[in-house]
């Protein structure tokens, strides 16, 4: 089944050229099926790029999915046309009466700012609390994962001596977990961050489980024991040239930045990057959608209850 996305969203043309099947609203309404409802809280400055990345990965699933897009009302994005936000995005006040099968909270370029000093921190905390009662499974990415771990469990983030920047090998700690079903023993994921969370802090929280990590990049994937909160510290959604764009930007600004690791052939920025993470990214998002959303979410979303009260079909062995 395809993803169902709003008519005229810029991502539609891009995905069609990549042969990813996207269904417009008119055709979707003609199908007798309840699609999964996914809410994307897009905290990235270039929202059109990020929404396309997410739709690309979730469009590679046999499940029909429909999206709502949300941004924070307490911070006005500066890198996305206002007309795009008005046409395709909603604020929390506009969506908080609904319930969703799944939600994605993206990263944001604010990781070097203390959590409580981020302009939209109070609003984000309200959204994260709301998600525990109104969303079956929430996938948090990069800073979004750090923010949720801090808000829900008090886990701090730590500054790194230099930016974690590149494409790093990872291993799976608990191979029977469904999130990594079908993964190779070693798989690659991009990282681009100045801060980290640490194993010692996570292991103090009995409700959390570390699923995957990297010898170089540290902790990668964490889940709560009821599988309704997933926390990913890297950027599996990145396009082939995203790290290049970040590297070129920082070089142009005269900022200290290393060549992204395991990215350019022979570490030569004049060559085209090698994509090592595409299959892992597609599999990760597909597994989340299937095993952590579809297999557990109630058919009647009004039956969703608090995160602490429900453990879906995904038991401890998944």
Topology:
Layout: E1 3-4, H1 11-17, E2 22-23, H2 25-29, E3 36-41, H3 47-58, E4 65-70, H4 82-88, E5 89-90, H5 92-95, E6 100-105, H6 121-134, E7 135-141, H7 143-153, E8 158-172, E9 187-196, H8 199-203, E10 208-214, E11 218-224, E12 229-232, H9 242-252, H10 278-294
Parallel strand pairs: 1-2, 1-4, 3-4, 3-6, 4-5, 6-7, 7-12
Antiparallel strand pairs: 8-9, 8-10, 10-11, 11-12
Helix pairs in contact: 1-3
Task: Look at the structure and give the mean pLDDT.
Answer: 87
- In the CATH hierarchy, the third-tier topology is known as Rossmann fold
Strand content: 15-25%
Tally of domains: 1
Give the overall shape: globular
Order of helices and strands: EHEHEHEHEHEHEHEEHEEEHH
Strand count, sense and closure of the main sheet? 12 strands, mixed
Radius of gyration: 19 Å
CATH class: Alpha Beta
Low-confidence stretches: 27-32, 309-318
Question: Care to count the β-strands?
Answer: 12
Share of helix among residues?
25-40%
At CATH level 2, the architecture is 3-Layer(aba) Sandwich
Main structural class: alpha/beta
Catalytic activity: L-homoserine + acetyl-CoA = O-acetyl-L-homoserine + CoA
GO cellular component, one term: cytoplasm
Protein name: Homoserine O-acetyltransferase
Pfam families: HTS
Features:
single chain; alpha/beta; HST_MetA; 12-stranded mixed β-sheet; 318 residues; MetA_family; methionine biosynthesis; 12 strands; Rossmann fold; acyltransferase; 10 helices
């Amino acid at each position: 089944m395809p993803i169902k996305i709003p008519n005229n969203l810029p991502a539609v043309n891009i995905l069609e050229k990549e042969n990813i099947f996207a269904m417009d609203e008119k055709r979707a309404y003609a199908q007798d099926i309840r699609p999964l409802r996914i809410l994307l809280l897009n905290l990235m400055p270039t929202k059109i790029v990020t929404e396309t990345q997410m739709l690309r990965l979730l469009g590679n699933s046999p499940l029909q999915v429909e999206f709502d897009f949300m941004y924070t009302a307490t911070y006005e994005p500066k890198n996305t046309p206002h007309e795009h936000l008005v046409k395709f995005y909603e604020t929390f006040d506009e969506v908080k009466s609904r319930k969703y099968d799944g939600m994605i909270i993206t990263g944001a370029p604010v990781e070097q700012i203390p959590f409580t000093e981020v302009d939209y921190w109070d609003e984000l905390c309200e959204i994260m609390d709301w998600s525990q009662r109104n969303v079956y499974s929430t996938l948090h990415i990069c800073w979004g994962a750090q923010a949720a771990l801090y808000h829900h469990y008090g886990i701090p983030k730590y500054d790194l001596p230099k930016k974690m920047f590149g494409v790093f090998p990872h291993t799976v700690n608990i191979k029977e977990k469904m999130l990594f079903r079908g993964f190779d023993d070693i798989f690659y994921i991009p990282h681009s961050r100045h801060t980290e969370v640490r194993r010692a802090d996570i292991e103090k929280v009995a409700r959390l489980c570390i699923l995957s990590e990297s010898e170089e990049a540290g902790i990668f994937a964490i889940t709560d024991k009821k599988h309704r909160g997933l926390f990913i510290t890297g950027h599996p959604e990145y396009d082939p040239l995203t790290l290049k764009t970040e590297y070129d930007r920082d070089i142009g600004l005269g900022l200290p930045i290393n060549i992204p690791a395991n990215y350019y052939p022979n570490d030569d920025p004049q060559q085209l990057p090698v994509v090592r993470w595409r299959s892992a990214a597609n599999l990760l998002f597909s597994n989340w959608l299937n095993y952590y959303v579809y297999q557990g979410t109630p058919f009647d979303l009004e039956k969703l209850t608090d995160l602490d009260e429900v453990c879906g079909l995904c038991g401890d062995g998944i």
